[in-house]
Amino acid sequence: MPEQHKIDYQRIETAIRYISDHFKDQPSLDDIAQIVHVSPYHFQKMFTEWAGVSPKKFKKYL
Question: Which CATH architecture describes the domain 3-61?
Answer without folding.
Answer: Orthogonal Bundle (1.10)
